[in-house]
User: What shape does this take?
Amino acid sequence: MVASINDVKNKSFDYIVVGGGTAGLTIGARLAEDPNTSVLILEAGIANLGDPNILRPASYTTHFGKPEYAWDHQTIKQKTTGGNAHSWARGKGLGGSSAINFLCWIKPAAAEIDDFERLGNPGWNWKNFEKYIHRTEGYFPPSEETQKNLSMKFEGWSLGNNGPLEIAYPATIDPAERKVQQTLLNAGIPLAPKPMNGDPAGVYYAPCTYNPATHTRSYAATAFYTPNKDKSNFTVLVSAHVNRVIPASGDSEFTAESVEFEHEGQIYTVRANKEVILSAGALKSPQLLELSGIGNPNVLRKIGIPTKVDLPGVGQNVQEHMLVAVSFELREDVKFNTMDLLADPDVMNEHLKLHASGSGIFTTGIIGFTFAKLHEISPRANDIIKATEEKILKNANNYPPGLLEQYKISLERLKNAPGCEFISFPGMCSKPNPPEKGKRYVSFYVGLNHAFSRGTIHSVSKNPQEDAEFDPRYFEEEVDLQVWVEMVKFARSLQNISPLKDMTTKELNPGPEVQTDEEIVSWIKKTMTTTWHTAGSCSMLPKANGGVVDPELKVYGTKNLRVVDLSVVPLHFAAHPQANVYGLAEQAADIVKGSFRA
Assistant: This one.
């Protein structure tokens, strides 16, 4: 059971973890494996345990805008997207964003994790990531019949199969998915050799965080909270909104002594015997540091908070993934049970009933993934790379500390890495043209992953209930838009390639009125959305290069304060990040325990 305030107030714990999301529950549960270690996790949302709206797969975006499930964060208005503010929703409640994400289990190229080490972080490499993510994974391969029907090939794949997080292919996979994949192969993209083991370049079917026994979402709460909930040394308090970390007085170095939080309108503090670990996510961890007096003195001065640790990297180096979608109308005679069918309330009710028996649309998943290199999808690749290289060389002396190192790696990726992502989606998910009643669609999410633009996240008030200012600075570097335009063109071209050519009638979005590069740019700016993968706001880098945490995830200038979440990623990778967050938290747990060896 989740704790009551009486289990927490006037008590102390060895470790206090701020945030009961993906990283927080993982590291908290691992630290509590030692029965002599006491762990407290403070989660601002409610428990939401056993909630069918969370557990039911294929319920994409239905949690957004509902305060019991999601934080409705908004960016500031972006000049580069026509003055639009963009929703940066995040999971709220136990499990965090793993409770409301799209269940995709994706891993990046090995080189992109090795880049963490290249940027000054010994031990943060693919070899260790793979070891630690296998601890989390409880993988169930698909049946031989499914493998045969979809021509699945798993030679060389290796996933953990004893971990607490169920990883599987959904029970229902429409045969049309094979035709969609074949279209991408016919477009010249190869089959990915080892997408779960460091080589995802190409086309493949990805598994999901899916429990094949119950046909429900597997997420941080089912994997790390439920199995540990009865441990006396594992305490989880929900509806606990953390305000700040309070240091011990008199120490020359910041020593985290207690955490202040609000619960049901009352303010409490709880003491940490050993450490405080921030796992509030890339949007909130930098704000909590600033509210605790750790950050850029200029930012802190504006909100009236005395500087305890001068650390200008806090809230800088923010990187994001972005999406648009291209949709095609399916022919009437094509068999494909898409999400569009759920627009009919009677069909929706039928599939809700089918889910209980392990069938229907709510036992499907997003499984069709392609990670391509720029030169594989665009004849303009060399021109884009050359122009970007020239700009970086020209401005080399003007970049903030450490950014040039990142850009050199990003240039390598632009030339050789599979950063151009295409996700097949069974249904209409694009803008601005609405679907026609009774029609079905197949869509491709077009995901930009290796952005050069850098944003910021900074507090604008000392009030912890007020959001920080989220400024992604979309398209500050024009290469992002140039690459994205080429990706959209490639996605649109798929309609001219069989078998998709024989399955579809017309393009719904962007639509026939969008033809030139300039028109594609305008469409992107009007319809783009985040992929909800923000990283980098508390980067693990040398302090001189804008770093916030060291390779042990300890905040510079502090004795016992760490950050363990996606905010520490110094250079974003081309993958949906939940697998990396679990792996990061697993490795962090060993670092905290003192058992990690680089």
Remarks:
- The radius of gyration is 23 Å.
- The chain has a mean pLDDT of 97.
- The longest strand covers residues 266-278.
- The chain has 17 helices and 24 strands.
